[in-house]
Design brief:
75% of the residues lie in helices and 0% in strands. The chain has five helices and no strands. The chain has two domains: 55 residues, no CATH class; 44 residues. With 103 residues, the protein is an all-alpha fold. The longest helix has 22 residues. Bound molecules: zinc ion (ZN). The site of zinc ion has 6 residues, from helix 2 and helix 4.
Length: 103
C-alpha cells in the first residue's frame, strides 16, 4: 500500500514538472537549497523554490533535515553547549565529531 502511494505521488510530480514550466525538479531544488539559505536566490528563483517546497513533502523534509544538520554542525563547531539544538541525540554529536577527526 505504501509503495503504491509513493509510486502515485512520483507519477503526479513527474506530471506537474512536465506540464507546469515554472516547476523545478527535486534535483534543482537540492541545488537551490544552499543559495536559498544564504539568501542568494533572485526573486524568481525563490518563488520557484518556494512553490516546489509547498508541493513536495520530500523536499520539505529534506530542507528541514538540512537546516537541522547545519545547526548541529555549527554548534559542534563552536563547541558552545548553549547552541546545541534540543533533543539532539548524543550519539549524533559524537558521530559528527568523529567524522571531523577523520577529515
Ligand atoms: Zn521535491
Amino acid at each position: 500500500m505504501k509503495q503504491h502511494q509513493t509510486g502515485w505521488w512520483h507519477w503526479l510530480k513527474g506530471f506537474m514538472f512536465r506540464h507546469i514550466p515554472a516547476m523545478i525538479s527535486c534535483r534543482e531544488f537540492e541545488n537551490f537549497v544552499i543559495d536559498y539559505l544564504d539568501g542568494e536566490l533572485n526573486s524568481r528563483q525563490q518563488q520557484r523554490f518556494e512553490s516546489h517546497l509547498r508541493m513536495c513533502r520530500e523536499c520539505r523534509e529534506y530542507l528541514q533535515a538540512y537546516k537541522r544538520s547545519i545547526d548541529i554542525d555549527r554548534a559542534v563547531c563552536t563547541m558552545d553547549d548553549e547552541a546545541v539544538p534540543e533533543n539532539v541525540p548524543e550519539e549524533l554529536i559524537r558521530a559528527i565529531l568523529e567524522a571531523r577527526k577523520n577529515d
